Amino acid sequence: MIRTALASRPVRAGAALTAVAGIALLAGCAPEASEAEEPATTDTSDSTDSGSSGAYADGTYTADGSYATPESVETITVTVTLEDDVITAVEVTGDPQKRESEQYQGEFIGGIADVVVGQDIDDIQVSRVAGSSLTSGGFNEAIETIKSEAAN
Fold this sequence. Notes:
This protein has 4 helices and 3 strands, in the order ααβββαα. The chain is of the alpha+beta class. This is FMN-binding protein. One of its GO terms (cellular component) is membrane.
């Protein structure tokens, strides 16, 4: 047992030296405090200005998204209404191939409006809605298509 403990010391020391060397290397890349503050202020005002002009055209958009389940590949249709890049309405319809998919799509459809209405479309990345996680993949795919179509 003593040999095992002693044998692990060089590995720990090597790992520690590697970590210290990495930190030292990264520290040399960090900007000085005055350099870091100035661009951040400029970036913030730029993103605020571009957000107020709208990256997406107002309107109603529809796209399909698909996702795989253990039993099948499912498709949903997503319709969103955008005003100033904010989702003001959402409708999701499904065409479930399996009974279990029908249940999960129904739960997703019943809860998605509470999650996305009132949100900026760029902030939407749904992972689980009302217990349904796989349907989210199709929804996110459709949102990406809608963003492409609505881009100014």
